[in-house]
Design goal:
Layout lengths: L1 E4 L5 H7 L8 H6 L3 E5 L5 E10 L3 E9 L8 H15 L4 E7 L4 H7 L3 E6 L7 E7 L1
Parallel strand pairs: 4-5
Antiparallel strand pairs: 1-2, 2-3, 3-4, 5-7, 6-7
Length: 135
């Protein structure tokens, strides 16, 4: 598995799968190097990780996705650790993410050292758990 910043050639792959972002924001995030593409042995896209900045000063992982057939192989952990190292190199001491309370991802993040930091309750949605990790 390879981890690379997404490029314009990854746009169609991301648009077809990432339903949690306004399409008009994908190209700017690619240009700002805020989306990583995960590539398999055949150099094909197998997932992505997208991030931004909470309060414009704290790295926040917005989305981590692996295509179904590539889950459970440790690729998610690899991309999270890669991102954390990049954020550490940029001088950040804390990173954040979130997940809904009905999703298994909360356990994945806790195993990687993320701690519950609060929650957000929006009408008609499950509780959103906010998680942070000191780098």
């Amino acid at each position: 598995m390879k981890i690379q910043f997404a490029t314009a050639s990854d746009y169609k792959y991301i648009v077809a799968r990432d339903k949690h972002i306004v399409e008009a924001l994908i190209r700017p995030k690619i240009n700002e190097q805020e989306i990583f593409i995960l590539r398999g042995d055949e150099n094909q896209e197998i997932g992505w990780m997208r991030f931004g900045y909470f309060w414009d000063n704290t790295p926040f992982m917005n989305m981590l996705w692996l295509d179904e057939e590539y889950r459970g192989r440790g690729y998610g952990k690899q991309i999270v650790l890669h991102w954390e190292e990049l954020m550490r190199e940029k001088g950040f001491s804390v990173v954040m993410t979130s997940t809904q309370s009905n999703e298994e991802a909360q356990h994945f993040y806790r195993k990687l050292g993320y701690k519950d930091a609060g929650c957000l309750l929006q009408e008609a949605d499950p509780l959103e758990i906010i998680l942070t990790k000191s780098l």
